[in-house]
Amino acid sequence: MNDKQLLRYSRHILLDEIGIEGQQRALAASALVIGAGGLGSPAALYLASAGIGRIVLVDDDEVDLTNLQRQILHTTERVGQPKAESGRAALLALNPEIEVVALRERADDARLAELVGQASVVLDCSDNFATRHAVNRACVAHTVPLVSGAVIRFDGQISVFDPRAKESPCYSCLFPQDQRFEDVACSTMGVFAPLVGVVGAMQAAEALKLVMQIGQSLAGRLLLLDGRAMEWTSIGVARNAGCPVCGSAGCV
């Protein structure tokens, strides 16, 4: 690290659990962020400020006025621009020393396999089960840890699925991909703006812990947040030996 980086990241370096070695791991890491919306905004901003060396933002949507209530990567002036490009501008304004790749696309299985294979950690900030399962399959296949978050109305959830650990479940163990789950859109059901900030920031924290190799991740635990009562519930999640994705019959 150069003198400017030592100064920029000094508050991390002062932490015994992180130090220079942990910060260097962050600078050498690549984070793949799927979705530059409500969750992806705070997650990507904290990854950038904390010094993740390479951030890849994937989103095929454009900035809309209705997004600005919660999607803090974007501004009124960038309404109509691709979210990935708007997000890239925000991240580089915050930290011009990192690399930010903006991909305006909806990645299919083949593309996800390519992108996940180049990542140190993946943050699923998408808003539909099809994408979540596709990301999960790619992470299991390439043994890359996945930080998954979701928010709707006043409810949030977050967990980590780490295929590097034999006992860690995958997303499909919790939400089987062969079962039907109804996608609920915030455009029809609404979402409490600060809640995506809470969960997205926690996604960044879990991703940083993984790449810096500090603390204990949320692997094997699902945290549920009731934003009205501001109460957290922790649920243990076990690996399903019969899971078609990560179980004995799957690709692992």
Protein model, in words:
Helix content is 37%, strand content 18%. The protein has helices spanning 3-8, 10-13, 19-28, 40-50, 83-94, 109-117, 129-142, 171-174, 186-189, 193-212; strands at 30-34, 54-58, 99-103, 121-124, 146-152, 155-161, 221-226, 231-236. The chain has an 8-stranded mixed β-sheet with strand order 3-2-1-4-5-6-7-8, with helices on both faces. Strand 5 (146-152) and strand 6 form a beta hairpin. This is Molybdopterin-synthase adenylyltransferase MoeB.
Order of helices and strands: HHHEHEHEHEHEEHHHEE
Q: Strand order within the widest sheet?
A: 3-2-1-4-5-6-7-8
Strand segment tally: 8
Largest beta-sheet details: 8 strands, mixed
What structural class should be given to the helix and strand makeup?
Answer: alpha/beta
**If you average the pLDDT, what whole number results?**
94
Return residue spans where pLDDT drops below 50 for at least 5 consecutive residues: none
Name the overall outline.
globular
Indicate the topology:
Layout (H helix, E strand, L loop, with lengths): L2 H6 L1 H4 L5 H10 L1 E5 L5 H11 L3 E5 L24 H12 L4 E5 L5 H9 L3 E4 L4 H14 L3 E7 L2 E7 L9 H4 L11 H4 L3 H20 L8 E6 L4 E6 L16
Parallel strand pairs: 1-2, 1-4, 2-3, 4-5
Antiparallel strand pairs: 5-6, 6-7, 7-8
Summarize this entry quickly.
The chain is an alpha/beta fold and 252 residues long. The chain has helices at residues 3-8, 10-13, 19-28, 40-50, 83-94, 109-117, 129-142, 171-174, 186-189, 193-212, and strands at residues 30-34, 54-58, 99-103, 121-124, 146-152, 155-161, 221-226, 231-236.
